[in-house]
Amino acid sequence: SSVPITCGDTPTVGQLVSKPQQGGTDEEGINLEEIREFAKNFKIRRLSLGLTQTQVGQALTATEGPAYSQSAICRFEKLDITPKSAQKLKPVLERWLAEAELWNQKGQQNLMEFVGGEPSKKRKRRTSFTPQAIEVLNTYFEKNALPTGQEITEIAKELNYDREVVRVWFCNRRQTLKNTSKINAFQCENEGAT
Amino acid sequence: SSVPITCGDTPTVGQLVSKPQQGGTDEEGINLEEIREFAKNFKIRRLSLGLTQTQVGQALTATEGPAYSQSAICRFEKLDITPKSAQKLKPVLERWLAEAELWNQKGQQNLMEFVGGEPSKKRKRRTSFTPQAIEVLNTYFEKNALPTGQEITEIAKELNYDREVVRVWFCNRRQTLKNTSKINAFQCENEGAT
DNA sequence: AGCATAAATAATAA
DNA sequence: TTATTATTTATGCT
């Protein structure tokens, strides 16, 4: 009385691979086990490069012709995809990833260029501060990381923010800088200077 | 004079800002380069195990005594932490991670048991809101985009949806609004105009 | 076959 | 640290 739930839908790799009956190979000779292994590996390597599914999708769309959405990458990694599609996508991903890793070895900058994102994409801040306000705050911070109460009041007034908010911003800013500067300062090793 | 610890008026921060580097070791003999390397490695290994910062934090809290929040793990990985704290935290993380990897080799189940979470926490099924519910939610949102916990509970009750689902809906709704209004001239601050 | 968005995870203002 | 925002992933739908 085993009624197939699939109702004619093509089963996904994930569904097939969890069935021990097939021994890792589907009826068309596709090695499902190999695909599963690659998918898992792909995710780890992607994360090691610090790339998001969106980035991979966009990069592939740019270099490989057809469109690869974030959803497509997601579904591949989760094996929520038909064996046929997976079989087709696998070599594309494999080739692309290998190249990406090559660029990464030459430096993080090269990778980001290869991926196609902006090299120095500005990070979005929490909404309490507008980007403009952050810029102004940083300018003040560079001049003086420890403003007096009077100065804080004036900055807050200029930016039209709550005084307390500005005070805490300086606190957090100093904290972050203090914590990270020592350890992180060595990251800039490929800067052309000695 | 006494040692000023408070974030408001420590005069040494300005000095820290422009402090020259010391070749990978700080004044207390901590190998910063080693910590940086480990932090990077830690993240990759954590992701390879498929663990979240939250899971690591909770597991550490359970096995190691003091509390380790998701934020703490995040800050360690980002090196947004003092060298002293990092030095203290590093061996704990190293030991824990090694053990986690050991359990993982014995099987995914063992790892999840070690981590202490539910064996296989499934992602919540994506809820579909009825058009009627969306309409009601939007009406509430227009009146108040940031309802209190009490209000959320009431709205959820009225619509007969899970409270958490409603809470997340407001989160995402705020997010969407923010993203779209960014395209237009945005106004983040409704405080007294200048 | 992929968009819209719900849910989950990471980062950060307080 | 905690509560919330920002970002990323996953999935219901057509």
UniProtKB/TrEMBL annotation, chains A, B:
Domain spans labelled POU-specific: 27-101
Protein location: Nucleus
Q: Where is the Homeobox domain?
A: 120-180
> Superkingdom of the source?
Eukaryota
**What residues are annotated to bind DNA?**
122-181
Family per record: Belongs to the POU transcription factor family. Class-6 subfamily.
Q: Give the protein name, as stated in the record.
A: POU domain protein
